[in-house]
Every structure is written in structure tokens, then in C-alpha cells.
Amino acid sequence: NEKETEADQKKFVKSLMETIITKQKNRDKNVNPKGITSITLWGLYDNVSWRYQCEPLLFGTYITKPKPSFFSFIEAAKVWKK
């Protein structure tokens, strides 16, 4: 969404990761013993994205410019490992 702010994106990424983590922790281990083994993100940074106008990725103009959503993603991933 072109009107989405960095704060909106951060909130969305946090919610998405919390949902993934909840699904992982509450899965039926008899049916799916490993659960989620990876998460794939499409694209590295906004400047090279085909949707760059929406700034959808975790990094801004360069890979060295993490956005708040990146840190939200990392914090959620740390919880996953606990």
C-alpha cells in the first residue's frame, strides 16, 4: 500500500511473525514434526524492488539501511528460538 507508513509496516511484520510463531508452536507434531523450517522474503531492499513505490521490504534504499520492520522481524525471530 503506497500510503503505508514505516510504523504500519513494522506493526504488520510483527503481527505476521507472531502468527507464524504461534502456528509453529501449536502445530500437531504428529502430523508435522519439523514444522516451519524457513521463511522466504522476496527482495532485499526497496530501491531494487519492482514495487519500490510502496517501499515493501525490510531495508530502505540500500541493504545497509534497515527499516523499523527489520528490527521487528528480528525481535520476533528471537522469540521463536526460545
Structural classification: mainly alpha
Look at the structure and give the mean pLDDT: 89
Computed Rg: 14 Å
Most strands sheet: none
Bin the helical content.
40-55%
Can you walk through the features of this model?
- The protein has helices spanning 6-25, 68-81.
- By secondary structure, it is mostly helical.
- Helices cover 41% and strands 0% of the residues.
Keyword list:
82 residues, mainly alpha, 2 helices, 0% strand
Write the layout of secondary structure elements.
Elements: H1 6-25, H2 68-81
Outline:
The chain has helices at residues 6-25, 68-81. It is mainly alpha-helical and 82 residues long.
